[in-house]
Amino acid sequence: MIEMEEINTMISGIDEYVEPMIDFLTRIISIPAIGPLSEGTGEMEKAEVITEFLLESGVGEITRHDSDDERVPSGKRPNIEVFLKGRSSRRRIVLITHMDVVSPGNIDDWETDPFVLRKENKRLIGRGVEDNGQALTAAIFAMKNMISTGVTPFFDVSLFIVSDEEETNEKGIGHLLEKGLMGKKDLILVPDHGDPEGHIIETVEKTLLWVKISVKGKRCHASMPHLGNNAFRASMMFGSNVDKMLHERFNDEDISFDYPLSTFEPTKKDNGVFGINVIPGEDVFFLDCRLLPHYEVDEVLDEMRKEASKVENKMGVTISVEPYLVERTLHPTQPDSPVVIRLSDAIEEVTGKKPETGGIGGGTCAAMIRNAGFQVAVWETIHNSAHSPNEYIEIENLVKDCKVFSAFLAQDTSL
Ligand SMILES: [Zn+2]
Q: Which residues partner with 200 through β-bridges?
């Protein structure tokens, strides 16, 4: 039995690590680690720096689970596992963080270089500080602090620092799942989404459906519209009809989600014609739909196709409605699952407040792990500036999350 006092002393020791944590973040933020779909060279250089740091500070046993990828210069996408033996091997705590980042976008939108960490008052600013630098740093330092204070985690711990989270997950989480590196009894935490108070533990994401819509008419000169059939006009009509139909037909509300309704958003539009004097023969656009989990993807697509045939008949065009990407929500994590209970206790221990569970629109790799049949909690304390220019975190949250991870690893349990 570990004394609560011992855990509390260990946790308060984290205050000493503020500067080392900022130094570590400064080092890793300086290495972009962008995936090949965004014309990046991958994560290898960053992985080497992280691995070197882990070895230097003796944080745990390190294993690499790199996957092959011809698209990057090293030919590999690195995945690091840091293992720490616990007092019990009955279960294992699994923390999953990622080292890749999205491109900084338009550099002019940044006040300073996105890859040079900037400290401003109580904030740290740079590409990747929030997504996923804060959690990655907090997890490493939670383990480092346990070792230096001589506190053994209750269960075995595996911290995974993966690649490819921002693109397909195939070379990171997907690779780990394929290798069978996660188990049903694992307590899996993905600190890659959260709220500014750290009040919500995310247990479910909406079903993701991306739809590609292609409208075909007949191209001709803009001065002679009777010789063609304007695909753009038909596309606008379909777009506006289908938008109305989707919002009316699939309008159930679930207030446990951060946004309680299903969402249907027209987003990307393919280039049509380049000349202003050309009536386009084809128009292509995409919808990003996020459905409350009880809705069926096929039902949504069927309703869209019904709407399409009305516009086809009226406008003499052909419209194809095709799913581009589908990620169904198959196994939401139960609010009373062991991982959620243990994490709630840890959060309450550190902050004095009991968190709640809820759902989000999606976008974390937890969905993929849940669909493989595992229970996963998603939690951290952030202001949701990921992927934006001048991405930032509050230093206070970095420290607080490190403390929560420490309690999560150390606490005694009967689970
Ligand atoms: Zn992320």
A: 356
